[in-house]
Design goal:
Layout lengths: L2 H9 L14 E5 L2 E4 L4 E4 L2 H4 L8 H13 L10 H14 L4 E6 L2 H16 L3 E5 L8 H5 L15 E5 L14 H16 L7 E4 L15 H12 L2 E5 L26 E4 L10 E6 H4 L14 H16 L2 H21 L4 E7 L2 E6 L9 H13 L2 E2 L1 E3 L6 E4 L7 H17 L2
Parallel strand pairs: 3-13, 5-6, 5-7, 7-8, 8-9
Antiparallel strand pairs: 1-2, 2-3, 4-10, 9-10, 11-12, 12-15, 14-15
Helix pairs in contact: 3-10, 4-10, 7-8, 11-13, 12-13
């Protein structure tokens, strides 16, 4: 055990998880690579939990941060803030929400917490619909709507949460149905649920479930839900903390795969927009955003430095068509991983879109989750020079792959080969 690891254990909570039997200290990065304290280089296929969206040490972002820090680092939302207004204008336009207002926070957890505050205030209801296998953050309100027991440490809650079917396509009671039948069954479940309860404030849903193992419903499910929600006046919150900014390749926002009946009422974002800086936020139509009747500010949300980083990062993303790169390179990577998975008895499914890919592992010859294999592959991949993540609602048995969106084809091939060897090493 390294001395830094010992010091970490001495001052950190027991529940603050670390990857790897011998945790790695990452000291610096460049492009799609990072280096540890021993000077070893790794290809990064997890990007700080989908946060390093464009590239490590992207010159455009580091320059913007440095220049802004040289002028002023902090002022709070009590003063006019040009970078915050400029980024809010761009995000409001990109969101697809009409008459949009934007509020910045410091994390996705805080963004979802704010969305819940808005929805419950607007609707005068503390009842929330959420998806099974979901994850929305680590605050008291966010864990109470998280449908994944591994990430929800308490049943105490300021909210009453009701869980809806549909976030996981290939497991559960509707897995055997066709896509159309699956959507119809989930809508019928929602209709039945609403017949037994008081009016909820909102449905909150990740278009692609992140911590849940990159699972998703068929396209159009949330559009079908929207028809039901609209009849009851229930708001739709799209949690885009992991799916936003073009990571799925096919769409800029995850909700657009379900956009037949319009955009969500509230959209939350974080992670990738800051490329490592602490940015989160909420977009909502004006009447919803303006429903609060008490004062509120954000001390650190909308910081001039983080906003400068977000502007530079968003400009780079759009100017270099990283959404298109995610679609092209991600499509090749998924097909390569599916071919590798077909040769492994422990791979149940390779799923995902763009550069948001999950590999679900099971015990050979069964449909039983295999968290031991997932942990072993994680270790073996690191030994091979590749960093990946893991998750999943079934005992953390899904390998999570989410590189920076500037990933090249040779890097995708290199990572796939390391993963192939790691999977072979565990059978």
């Amino acid at each position: 055990m390294s001395s830094l690891h010992q010091r970490h254990l001495a001052v950190s909570p027991d529940w603050l998880a670390l990857y790897y039997k011998n945790p790695v200290e990452i000291t610096h990065g460049e492009g799609r690579h990072v280096w540890d304290a021993d000077g070893r280089r790794y290809l990064d296929f997890f990007g700080g939990i989908l946060t390093t969206m464009t590239a490590h040490a992207l010159p455009e972002v580091t320059k913007a941060v440095s220049e802004q820090a040289g002028r002023i680092i902090h002022s709070s939302t009590l003063y006019l803030n040009r970078p915050m207004v400029e980024l809010a204008e761009r995000i409001a336009t990109l969101s697809g929400i009409p008459d949009a207002r934007v509020f910045f926070t410091t994390s996705g957890t805080e963004a979802n917490d704010t969305a819940l505050l808005l929805a419950t205030t607007y609707r005068r209801s503390n009842q929330i619909l959420a998806m099974r296998n979901s994850y929305h953050g680590r605050s008291f309100s966010a864990v109470s709507i998280t449908g994944n027991s591994a990430w929800s440490p308490t049943n105490l809650s300021p909210l009453q949460t009701l869980y809806v079917h549909g976030g996981v396509r290939t497991r559960g009671p509707y897995a055997h149905l066709t896509d159309a039948e699956f959507i119809a069954a989930c809508v019928a479940d929602l209709e039945d649920l609403l017949g037994h309860t008081r009016e909820p404030a909102a449905l909150i849903a990740e278009p692609i479930q992140g911590v849940g193992g990159f699972t998703s419903p068929p396209d159009g499910l949330y559009a079908a839900f929207r028809r039901v929600l609209d009849r009851h006046g229930i708001l739709w919150i799209s949690d885009e903390v992991q799916t936003g900014w073009g990571r799925s390749g096919e769409h800029f926002w995850g909700w657009q795969a379900h956009g037949e009946n319009g955009p969500p009422d509230i959209l939350t974002f974080a992670k990738g927009i800051g490329n490592g800086m602490s940015i989160g936020g909420v977009v909502a139509r004006a009447d919803v955003m303006n429903c609060l009747d008490a004062n509120s500010i954000s001390t650190f949300g909308g910081s001039p430095v983080t906003m400068a980083a977000g502007l530079a990062n968003l400009s780079y993303l759009l100017e270099h068509d990283l959404q298109g790169n995610a679609r092209r390179v991600g499509g090749l990577l998924i097909e390569r991983l599916r071919a590798i998975g077909a040769a492994s008895e422990c791979v149940r499914e390779v799923r995902g879109r763009g550069l948001m890919i999950g590999i679900e592992l099971v015990k050979p010859g069964t449909d039983e989750a295999n968290p031991e294999a997932a942990a072993a592959v994680l270790e073996a991949a690191r030994e091979g020079g590749l960093l990946i993540g893991k998750g999943g609602g079934h005992n953390t048995s899904v390998l999570r792959i989410a590189p920076p969106l500037s990933l090249t084809i040779p890097e995708a091939e290199e990572g796939a080969e390391i993963l192939a060897e790691a999977l072979r090493s565990v059978g």
